Amino acid sequence: MQVINIHKRTINQPKNKVSDLFKTIATSNDLVWPYENWPAMRFKDGLKIGRKGGHGRVRYTIIDFNKGDYIKFKFSKPDGFNGTHELRIEEITLGKTEISHEIRMNTSFKATFFWIFIIRWLHDALIEDAFDKIENYFLIEKKQPKHSNWVEFLRGAYKIKSFKTKHA
Description:
The structure is a single chain. By secondary structure, this protein is an alpha+beta fold. It has 4 helices and 7 strands; from the N terminus they run E-H-E-E-E-E-E-E-H-H-H. It has helices at 15-22, 109-138, 149-157, 164-167, and strands spanning 2-11, 42-43, 52-55, 58-66, 70-77, 81-93, 96-107. A hairpin with a 3-residue loop joins strand 5 (70-77) and strand 6. The chain is globular and about 45 Å long. Residues 162-168 have low confidence and may be disordered.
């Protein structure tokens, strides 16, 4: 099955301010990835093209990277996920920036069911939590994560908890 999954959000801040947050991805002070409530994004030797890493059971390799602008990964796990995902920031105007996350992949027969019934739900919630984390950095009144009952069930079934203490 061909999968195209795109999330976008406008942040009412100049690109350079949002870019500063993106420079912290996969560090001990990650201001983008919601490691407080999801498996942390980890790379053994930092963010560089060719480095392998991932989050939780999802594994990938960095195939393109421009610090503070975008990072693109190629999936290696789960089996049957053949494609890429990318985080990107783009200036809309001097005071508005668009952040986006895009998956483009083909799935094997088995992986299609895994995507449809499990991973897509968790993925969508995680990305929206990441976008909330970015937006909350600039807000006084913070957005709180809201997950569907199905997402909460899956989080319990997969024992997804706070990874804050394991991240440092």
